[in-house]
Structures
1.
Amino acid sequence: MKIGIIIHSQTGNTLSVANQIKERLSAAGYSVELEQVTAVDEKQPDPSKIKLKTVPETAGYDYLIFGAPVHGASLSPVMKAYLFQVQSLKGKKAICFMTEFFPYPWMGGNRAVGQMKAACSSKGACVVSAGIVNWSNRKRAGMIQAIVEKAAEETGRDA
Ligand SMILES: Cc1cc2nc3c(=O)[nH]c(=O)nc-3n(C[C@H](O)[C@H](O)[C@H](O)COP(=O)(O)O)c2cc1C
């Protein structure tokens, strides 16, 4: 099974979680690629005006893990723009995760992860799990660990 981890990360937090997921799933024996979505102007707040610079292909993956930061209590505009234009995800399973600064998921993260799940579902993916890492929460390491282990458990069902 080929797993693609496709993320947007502006300051490295989401990337660090993605690297831990990659390590864990690679150790479990899967073929895992980590790819980043980037934009010409990372600070453009309007997804419809964003020009994407790197646009990962999803076709070669059986399983997708999407990660992004919360921006303004929403899914980051760059990830919104990416998921809007991405090809069909029909027949693929997906896991979504977000990172946010605030300590609790109801401070924007829940809304943002809901947007990400809806965007994936609208492209035909079956979203099997979703998680949020609250970066300023003292239990951050445990939250990251929970997402990593959940990814291993879910992908393990299809091994
Ligand atoms: C433009 C912008 C808006 C943000 N808005 C929020 C927000 O609404 N709520 C929140 O908890 N964190 C917010 N953050 C913080 C990021 O979500 C958080 O630091 C995240 O972990 C960054 O991930 P990254 O390092 O992968 O880019 C914002 C950051 C930026 C740059």
Note: The helical segments are 13-27, 77-85, 109-122, 140-156.
2.
Amino acid sequence: MPLIAIYNPACGDKTGKPTFLLYVLPLLFGKGITVDRKVETTHEGHAAEAVSEFAKQHSGSAELTIVLGSGDGTLHEVLNALYFLDEVRGTKINIVLVPCGTANALFSTLFPPSTPEQVKEDSRYRMGSVHALFDGKGTTPVSLAVTELKGGAATGWGTRKTLVSAVVTSTALHAAILNTSESLREEHPGLERFKMAAQLNVKKWFKARVRLLPAPQQQAPEIYDVQSNSFIPASHEGALDLEGPFAYFLSTINVDRLEPLFLITPLAHDIPPPPGTCDIVVIRPLRDPGVWEDTPETRLGFVQRTWSAMAGAYQAGAHLKLRYGEGGQLVKEGDGQSVVEYFRCGGWEWHPEPTDDAAHLVCSDGAINRIDTGGWASCRVSTTPEDRPTFGIYVE
Ligand SMILES: Nc1ncnc2c1ncn2[C@@H]1O[C@H](COP(=O)(O)OP(=O)(O)OP(=O)(O)O)[C@@H](O)[C@H]1O
């Protein structure tokens, strides 16, 4: 089976190159596995170029293997390059994932670490996917969310850009954090840059309207009900509209976390999602009984609510229990409004208010894109993989 090994030497704490030279390539060699091409990426987009060229050369192969040393961003590049390539329609793409990035959301979901340091320091743990290849284990399918950025009146109404995500698609605070964090990468290569970026953006509210769409097998989008610990229909039929403003709007597939210990969508693990669905976490400040309007004061006052929810995600998903108590304080029990709304459905539309520039950012696995003024974004979990390649990751 054709096999390409690619590593990004610049991602995370820049250990991709020594990891491949000291561990991955010798292990493959020791097992007699032929590496048809080896690529050290030299620039953004290089991984996409390399896999596209390799796939074209091996057009017609039923399967291709990619040994990838990266974070979620380079994986995103690879998936986007191959998803749209005619030469690999119907091809099974098997990925051996070696975590070399900053957050490594997909790897740490598939291989939950016992400590956050394990992803950086435990070389046996980091080779989990490599060993799964050796052991002849099958691959776990990777679901994909397809996001279309639609133009506005000034730029034409059609689809301006299509993005494929395997981890996260978000707007609002999370997209703002990823946008800011890129400028901090050089000085702060570790996870701390996401916390610094959060500090800089947490006061913002994002003006938009959302439509949640049911998956093919759902009558309606579903919402998590903490009392019954299950998902229940969120509307009587069809789509569900959510009015903003939003503090947080984020959807995931394949993962329950965005960092080894940041479990933002923990139900993706606890209540396994049916095919064709994504998990969505929303925070809307106007659900707070103490917030009547959008003013600089209410935005400032809400900051602590958002921090509490984010802190809960770091405490094994405790944010799902947070609700507004009678005195306005946050509590973990009772029947007050939940701070976080947790949905499961087939996709969503995000319609930003044209005047709110910050609401126009869309994050797709860490890559930041901008919706045209007057435009909107449509995200759907892919349910028609027949005319596309399929992707799987080797997991122990
Ligand atoms: N040699 C290079 N120099 C600079 N950037 C590169 C190079 N090779 C690849 N890139 C880019 O580096 C970016 C970051 O990579 P990646 O997302 O995999 O790591 P990360 O951001 O550290 O980890 P994570 O996404 O898990 O937080 C990608 O957008 C990729 O295109």
Note: Residues 8-12, 41-46, 70-74, 77, 101-104, 366 surround adenosine-5'-triphosphate (CB under 6 Å).
